[in-house]
Amino acid sequence: MQRSHAHSRLRNKPDMDPLEIQTRAGHRSSPPSTSSLAKPKSKPTKLIILLIIATVAIALGLFFVCYSTILSGWNRRVSLRYSVVIDGGSSGTRVHVFRYRVESEKPVFDFVGDGGYASMKLSPGLSAYADNPEGASVSVGELVGYAKGKVPKGMLKKSDIRLMATAGMRLLELPVQEQILEVTRRVLRASGFQFREDWVSVISGSDEGV
């Protein structure tokens, strides 16, 4: 009788639900992930950050110093000017090449420094070509060539050239003076320098003294 009751209890016991089996299996502890075990990356220390900032500051300082030096030198070169004056005297014709800089809109000449001043003289004077005005072009052309050798090529068009005839030319008749002056104008016009027609003239005795 007892055995029959035992068998009936075994038969009446419900089967285990498969979902419950899966749920229980899911409760098994999973191994810790490798990401949770990895140590956090170390951050740069304050000392390293300060060193980086100091290095950048020094580099910027050197850059601005170099930039200021280069800019100052460039501005000084830009302010340089050249001027050429041909003095047609009685005993000879001399060319003067002046280099100067502009400060506060005023020219400042340096006759001592290298390249600040140069000159060359040829004989005879312009008045000696009274019978052959075209002959004046040879001597004036040679003087112009000398001046071009003293002025940087890129500055020719910005550098003025003038011719001032003095005592010897004043003794000639006006038509002869004008013939010689016109020959010199033609040479200066083709020189490459900055030139105007009225920059060639016979100056008075009072102007010559100045």
UniProtKB/TrEMBL annotation:
The chain crosses the membrane at residues 47-74. Signal peptide: none annotated. Its EC number is 3.6.1.5. The active site is at 208 (proton acceptor). This is apyrase. Gene3D superfamilies: 3.30.420.40. It comes from Noccaea caerulescens (Alpine penny-cress). Pfam families: GDA1_CD39 (PF01150). One of its GO terms (molecular function) is nucleoside diphosphate phosphatase activity. It catalyses: a ribonucleoside 5'-triphosphate + 2 H2O = a ribonucleoside 5'-phosphate + 2 phosphate + 2 H(+). Residues 1-40 are annotated as: Disordered. One of its GO terms (cellular component) is membrane. The keyword ATP-binding does not apply. InterPro entries: GDA1_CD39_NTPase. Belongs to the GDA1/CD39 NTPase family. One of its GO terms (biological process) is nucleoside diphosphate catabolic process. Keywords: Hydrolase, Membrane, Transmembrane, Transmembrane helix. The lineage of its organism: Eukaryota, Viridiplantae, Streptophyta, Embryophyta, Tracheophyta. Residues 1-11 have a biased composition (Basic residues).
